[in-house]
Amino acid sequence: MSERIYLLPVWIRAWHWCNAVLILTLIVTGASLHFSDPNLPLLEFSRAASVHNVAGVALASLYGLFVVANIVSGNWWQYVPKPPGIGHRCMVQARYYAYGIFRGESHPYPPTREANFNALQALVYWFVMYILVPTVVATGLVFMNPEIAPERLFGLDGLLPVAVLHYLSGTIITLFVVAHIYLGTTGVTVTSLFKMMITGWHEH
Amino acid sequence: MTVLKEFLPKIWLLLAVFLVVSPAWAQGDAKSINPELLEKIRKSNAECFACHSEAGLKNPPLPGLDLAKLRETIRDDEVFKNSNHGKMECRQCHGQGYQAYPHAVGSKQLISPCEQCHAVQVMKAEMQFDNSVHAKNLKDKFTCSTCHDPHVALAAAKLGDPRKAAAQDNHMCLECHNSDLTFAKYAPADKKRPNIDKIHAWLPNTRLHWDAVRCVDCHTPVAKTLSHEIANKDKAERNCVTCHSTNTALATRLYRHVAKTEANTYGFANSALLNSIYVVGATRHPLLDWAMVGLVAATVAGVLGHGLVRIILAWRRNRSGR
């Protein structure tokens, strides 16, 4: 029988699923807006715009709560990639995904209460939560209030760099989401990590 | 035949106007005007603006003027000078009855109609106007100048910046549609002015739209470059992708003057619009789009491939009992 530890308090699980719903909504509506085509409508444009705006403001608020809760609970420490030997641990983890996982090897760094994330996870999550999400949220808020953007930049509408940054960061988050959902199937069973995100209990 | 009968008088009028007024038309052409004539016009107009301006109202140059009446007829000298008609003499339209003060009785009735110079445009506009919501409800109360103030209007091509054209043209509509007082002057007695924000609540970022596009860009048939066939809310354009797509109608309508200068700046599609506005769905970079879509597709393919290899190898391990 596998061992299990209680890893994720309820607030992290609730935040995670709210984040997931909002980000998926924003990806679908965002893609529909950016790639709008009269011959290939994904969602009706004005509906997509309204939903994108509401979900965007909700994500911005949720990110604010996440930052506060992270500080108060000390959870922020989990996201900090910790030397020494971080490079080596990342290599070991990457080798596992590229090779060991196919041979049925065990996870090289299973999560503990002290370290929820392996080194590669910590690096990627740190980049996503402290660089990409703030970027997409900040540019999104400027997009909603374009009067904040510079009027002109390099002779063009000042909203252009904001829009491009929003698009790039949103796309990289989409890449993360695809990989994140897939890596969710790499627990002891295909569904165990998804169950962990619901119950809080991690199975080794 | 009925159509021909309807338009025959207009065609005769058009021909007659061409023969009679061509010199007057020529005088209004800014390119052909010589400096001496312009100076003469300016001097003549200065006499009018001596009274019919804010300054004239504050310090009336003549005794006994009816200031309340004068207030209704004041114009901005500078705005007029820069307008389409700015190089024309006031009396060109207002007539010789205004040569002296007090102005001759009945002079107002002798003011030249717009078609005296703009015969072709007026005929075209009238045909479109006849199908508009304004003709349906208010035909008798509408003239060109109900919307187009000849002392102010400047062609979009001359304004340059489409935002300025949007501000000028939307002002015409909002003068009535955003004012209970003015609306009541034209609308039927039982018609209450709808709140302009409420009826556009479905449109995201409504006010931003009004800064960047004209009311008529949605409230006239999209297939036409420019039209006086103003449509009500039921017939107005509601399909956002008409503008918010790479094949944007903005390039053939309000932004058509700047679209001529399309220079493919930094590789963006519709980059000519970018000098004024970023339009979601229209302002796109084909290479960047390919790169982003390619990255997402590669990631999806990567995880699917990874998963497939995992499944196959796990199945083989299970079969061999390891």
TrEMBL record, chain A:
Keywords: Cell membrane, Electron transport, Heme, Iron, Membrane, Metal-binding, Transmembrane, Transmembrane helix, Transport. SUPFAM superfamilies: Transmembrane di-heme cytochromes. The chain crosses the membrane at residues 12-33, 53-72, 123-144, 164-194. It comes from Magnetospirillum moscoviense. Residues 9-200 form the Cytochrome b561 bacterial/Ni-hydrogenase domain. Belongs to the HupC/HyaC/HydC family. The keyword NAD does not apply. GO terms for cellular component: plasma membrane. This is Cytochrome b561 bacterial/Ni-hydrogenase domain-containing protein.
From TrEMBL, chain B:
Keywords: Electron transport, Heme, Iron, Membrane, Metal-binding, Signal, Transmembrane, Transmembrane helix, Transport. It comes from the Bacteria. Gene3D superfamilies: Flavocytochrome C3, Chain A. The keyword Transmembrane helix applies. This is Class III cytochrome C domain-containing protein. One of its GO terms (molecular function) is electron transfer activity. Residues 77-177 form the Class III cytochrome C domain. Pfam families: Cytochrom_CIII (PF02085). InterPro entries: Cyt_c_III_dom, Multihaem_cyt_sf, Multiheme_Cytochr_ET. The keyword Signal applies. The chain crosses the membrane at residues 290-313. Residues 1-26 form the signal peptide.
